[in-house]
Amino acid sequence: MISLTEAPFEPGALLTAFCAGRDETGAVASFVGLARAEGGQASILELEAYPGFTESAIAAFAKDAAARFELQDWRIVHRVGKIAPGEAVVFVATASRHRRAALEACDFLMDWLKSRAPFWKKEHGPDGARWIEPTAQDRTDAQRWD
Amino acid sequence: MARVLLFGRLADQAGWREREVAADSLAALRACIANDDAELAEALAGPGVQVAVDKALVRGEASLAAAAEVAFLPPMSGG
Predict the structure, then answer these.
(1) Is A90 within 8 Å of chain B by CB?
(2) Basic and acidic residues bias located where (chain A) (predicted)?
(3) Is the Cα torsion angle B70, B32, B10, A127 positive or negative in sign?
(4) Residue A116 dihedral angles phi and psi, to the nearest 5°
(5) Which CATH class is domain B2-73?
(6) Which of A17, A134, B43, B50 has a beta carbon 3.0–4.6 Å from B73's, enabling a disulfide?
(7) Which chain A residues touch B76 with a CB distance below 8 Å?
(8) Which residues are within 8 A (CB) of A85 and not within 5 positions of it... i.e. 6 or more apart?
(9) Helices (H) and strands (E) in chain B — how many of each?
(10) What are residue B71's phi and psi, to 5 degrees?
(11) What is the pLDDT along chain B (79 residues), one digit of tens a residue?
């Protein structure tokens, strides 16, 4: 399931809920991305989504990932709007019978979310605001799986 | 009427995010926008800008049903 939220979320509570009632799972991997202050250069991160379109694109990609890695389940929560340094931006959890699939699927989902998911990112800093494009490293990370 | 949505830097450039435009095709819609703001029309046709009609990506020309939603998406940055 994918959710976009403008409100801050608590990653621990999401992970607890995701792990509940899984007597045939064996492995849950999770990742939490936090907004960085960049030494004061980024006071606020602003993420824009296209409601409806962004969730559909993420869900379609995650369903492919679930088939590729034989996941039993996955959960993605992504912030939109204005995010302060230290706040969680993204939560990803994957469930599988064995750890390797869960860990790799989590990594795979994050590489795509960081580089190709339909978000537009603006960094507000002391010198004003600027739109951020994916970094070369983000693109290289995503291409590892192509 | 089509409902036009702009995202990211395109919305900043235009000074608006959402507008109704009377057009029955993408070409007519682009011409209508160009009439009002030629620089914006150029940016909407710029490299890497994708177009979605009713939340599905389209390439090239498309006809627009009544009350279609047309979104111009600059290169996606990821989250």
Answers:
(1) yes
(2) 136-146
(3) negative
(4) -130, -5
(5) alpha beta
(6) B50
(7) 116-120, 134
(8) A34, A35, A36, A37, A42, A43, A45
(9) 3, 5
(10) -115, 135
(11) 999 999 999 999 999 999 999 999 999 999 999 999 999 999 999 988 999 999 999 999 999 998 899 999 999 988 8
Taking an 8 Å cut-off on Cβ atoms, the answer to whether A47 and B79 are in contact is: yes
Q: Is residue A124 within 8 angstroms of chain B, CB to CB?
A: no
ipTM topping 0.85? yes
What is the rounded average pLDDT of the residues A65-78?
A: 97
pLDDT score for A3:
98
- Backbone φ, ψ for residue B54 (5° rounding): 50, 45
- Helices vs strands, H then E, count in chain A: 4, 8
**Domains of chain A, first to last:** 2-143 (3.90.1170.40)
The alpha-carbon gap from B64 to the nearest alpha carbon of chain A, in Å, equals 18
A48 touches chain B (CB under 8 A): yes
Query: What's the mean pLDDT when you consider all of chain A?
Result: 94
The pLDDT-based confidence of A81 (bands split at 50, 70, 90) is very high
With a CB cutoff of 8 Å and minimum separation 6, the contacts of A42 are A35, A36, A85, A123, A124, A125
- Can you give the residue ranges of every domain in chain B? 2-73
**First-residue to last-residue Cα distance in chain A:** 24
